[in-house]
Amino acid sequence: MAAAGNRAEIIRSLFAAYLANDRARVEAAFAEDFRFSTPYGENIDKPTYFAECWRDSGWIGRHEIERIMVDGVEAFVTYRCVARDGKSFRNTEFFVFDGDKVSRIDVYFGPSHQDGELVRQDR
């Protein structure tokens, strides 16, 4: 079983793989029974995630990981995603691990964030 420090590195590696648009590396990091939830859909399985949620990440300029907190097989990561056009948003994701594989990610969307201030979003 991966140690807590290794789980933080697995998360960092996943963010790097997303930025590189490396689907194969992301797929390899997910357990076969992987589930994904957002406010738009709950408990999406691995094939559905890649069919409906995966897209070219060329629009992403960078991820700024603010914190990763690991507690046993669970972890939270809060990050700011900055698009190439300068727009940004901030999310928190809850990860559950099965050994060194990610078995679940729940995404909690956040508002844009600029110069340390929250930026009001249009609905």
TrEMBL record:
<protein>
    <submittedName>
        <fullName>DUF4440 domain-containing protein</fullName>
    </submittedName>
</protein>
<dbReference type="InterPro" id="IPR032710">
    <property type="entry name" value="NTF2-like_dom_sf"/>
</dbReference>
<feature type="domain" description="SnoaL-like">
    <location>
        <begin position="12"/>
        <end position="104"/>
    </location>
</feature>
<dbReference type="Pfam" id="PF12680">
    <property type="entry name" value="SnoaL_2"/>
</dbReference>
<dbReference type="InterPro" id="IPR037401">
    <property type="entry name" value="SnoaL-like"/>
</dbReference>
